[in-house]
Amino acid sequence: MLATSAWFFAYLVFSVPSGKLIEKVGYKSTMVISLFIMVVGAILFVPAANMVSFPLTLTAIFVLATGVCALQTSANPYVAILGPEHSASARLNLAQAFNSGASAIAGWFAARFILADTTKVTDSVSQAHMLEMPYVYIAAGLLVLGFTVMFLHLPAIASARPAEDSPAQGRSIWSFSHTVLGMVGIFFYVGVEIALAAICIQYCEQQGISSVQTAGILVTVYYLLIMAGRFVGSALMSVIKAERCLWFWVSWASF
């Protein structure tokens, strides 16, 4: 849980600076910078594994999450802005569905190729060294993705500030009650979603499911179901207003 906390602490620290970065260099450039930051975070896992250092591992997680934070801060609004306003929530939900799909693949990959090997080796130093190459491959993939986005032709949107004649001009973000309440709602939702995935393998071990692969498959199924729900939600919000969908699913969950 401390490793998970290190990940999301980066969101607390760098979300606002990421927004400032978008204002200065635009959405596309922020996406590229965030991917290169993620490369640095992935590379830091190599010395962390060599030194078998938990503090350095937490630092690597923090740096990697900083890049992810900047990427989400730029990519999510960018997806919402590209297209009609009435379908922005559907596009954002669709994008997050692919996010859940990637999480499902990552859970399967970790259980199949990383955690499976660590269960065969009891020495902590040897276990740590097994984690080096996966992060080297991740860093290489992120580097390629960063250069791909850099040379990719994307519609140029510098900022999403309100127009000068807009009622929102000059107002503090804290004055929008729906935004503040939405932030609180997301806080509790993400706490549930991430905590369940983070402790799933340990919970399965306590319940007698000793196979790491089996526990990893459960995490994969968990994220696949989230992905399916987001695909359904995206389809529904293309014909039903987002606030009505929200009201329905919150009412359903309350039962």
Account of the protein in words:
This protein is mainly α. Helix 1 packs across helix 3 (54-81), helix 2 (27-51) runs antiparallel to helix 6 and helix 4 (88-118) runs antiparallel to helix 8. The longest helix has 31 residues, at 88-118. It has helices at 2-25, 27-51, 54-81, 88-118, 124-130, 132-151, 177-206, 212-237, 242-254.
SSE diagram, text form:
Elements: H1 2-25, H2 27-51, H3 54-81, H4 88-118, H5 124-130, H6 132-151, H7 177-206, H8 212-237, H9 242-254
Helix pairs in contact: 1-2, 1-3, 2-3, 2-5, 2-6, 3-4, 4-8, 7-8
List keywords for this structure.
9 helices, mainly alpha, 255 residues
- Major beta sheet, specifics? none
Distance between the termini: 29 Å
What is the overall number of helices?
A: 9
- Helix and strand content put the structural class at mainly alpha
Mean pLDDT: 84
**Silhouette:** globular
Helix share bin: over 70%
Taking pLDDT < 50 over at least 5 consecutive residues as the criterion, the unreliable ranges are none
**Beta-strand percentage range:** under 5%
Supply Rg: 20 Å
- DSSP E strands, number: 0
Helix-strand pattern: HHHHHHHHH
